[in-house]
Task: inverse folding
């Protein structure tokens, strides 16, 4: 198993970044109009830009990516299409540069990696070319990127990634977003199933089942909404035992919706058996990641070790406190 430690570039101070995120409560039910709470984590996407003699080159050594962007090409990966849009929007299409990315957030694990990547790149471009963008400019442009990557974005991931604050979210036009207050970080362990999260597939599955059994699913979504609303109070009071109980109950409903996965269940069992006050799937499900709420770094290390012993990768992180 991997160590869970992320190597950082030597010149870390030069980096621009976007935060990864977890959903603490309310995934899937949020699609059907309920509240959800999303939290930034201390794992980030980091990026820097420097001059290059010819073209725009994207470098992500950790992922084996080293490619010159061909503008207008039929890109295999949506990241290149998104990058093209960002460069066009910022009027940088004809500038030559290297864009290097140092990912701490794992791919396709339901942790907002694509939004964090866009935010990090936009901020790195802003820094290098002195564009004068503010956080709200970054949020708006990263939302456009998310629409390209996901074919329709909620606005949760790019908002959390840009501002680094917990938010209570409810979809709508425009969506409702309320910033929550967290004064001290909350220790967590993120367990990785090793199976890519199939968000769109899981959302479709839940929607089809809800259409077949509307009475029962409406009751489940209502209960999940109450848990999300209750989690706000637990977060702001930093009541980890109450938040853990809410997370455990939320996961029970996610299991009822059929979006969990055997490896995720194994990781949750390991976490709970080793002292986590709460453990649940985070994100779309069908694989992906789970989160375990811990009360100390000693517990974090113990749970991470047990997950490694069971053959899983696990990352130590924190839910980031709110920025004043």
Result:
């Amino acid at each position: 198993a991997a160590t869970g430690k992320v190597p950082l570039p030597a010149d870390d101070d030069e980096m621009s970044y976007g935060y990864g995120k977890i959903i603490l409560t309310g995934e899937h039910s949020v699609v059907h109009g309920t509240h959800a709470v999303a939290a930034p984590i201390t794992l980030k996407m980091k990026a820097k830009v420097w001059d290059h003699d010819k073209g725009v080159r994207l470098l992500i050594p950790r992922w084996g990516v080293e490619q010159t962007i061909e503008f207008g090409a039929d890109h295999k990966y949506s990241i290149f299409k998104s990058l093209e849009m960002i460069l066009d929007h910022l009027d940088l299409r004809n500038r030559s540069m290297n864009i290097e990315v140092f990912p701490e957030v794992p791919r396709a694990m339901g942790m907002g990696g694509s939004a964090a990547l866009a935010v990090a790149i936009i901020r790195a471009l802003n820094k290098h070319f002195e564009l004068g963008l503010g956080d709200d400019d970054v949020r708006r442009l990263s939302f456009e990127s998310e629409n390209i990557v996901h074919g329709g974005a909620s606005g949760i991931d790019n908002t959390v990634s840009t501002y680094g604050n917990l938010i209570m979210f409810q979809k709508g036009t425009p969506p409702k977003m309320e910033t929550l207050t967290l004064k001290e970080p909350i220790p967590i362990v993120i367990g990785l199933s090793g199976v890519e999260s199939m968000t769109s597939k899981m959302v479709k599955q839940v929607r089809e089942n809800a259409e077949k059994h509307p009475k029962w699913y409406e009751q489940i979504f209502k209960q999940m909404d109450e848990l999300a609303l209750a989690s706000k109070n637990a977060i702001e009071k930093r009541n980890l035992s109450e938040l853990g109980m809410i997370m455990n109950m939320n996961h029970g409903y996610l299991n009822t919706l059929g979006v969990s996965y055997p490896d995720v269940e194994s990781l949750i069992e390991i976490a709970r058996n080793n002292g986590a006050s709460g453990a649940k799937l985070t994100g779309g499900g069908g694989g992906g990641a789970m989160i375990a709420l811990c009360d100390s770094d000693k517990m974090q290390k113990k749970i991470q070790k047990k997950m490694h012993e069971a053959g899983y990768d696990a990352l130590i992180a924190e839910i980031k406190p709110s920025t004043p």
Summary: DSSP finds nine helices and eleven strands in the chain. The longest strand covers residues 35-51.
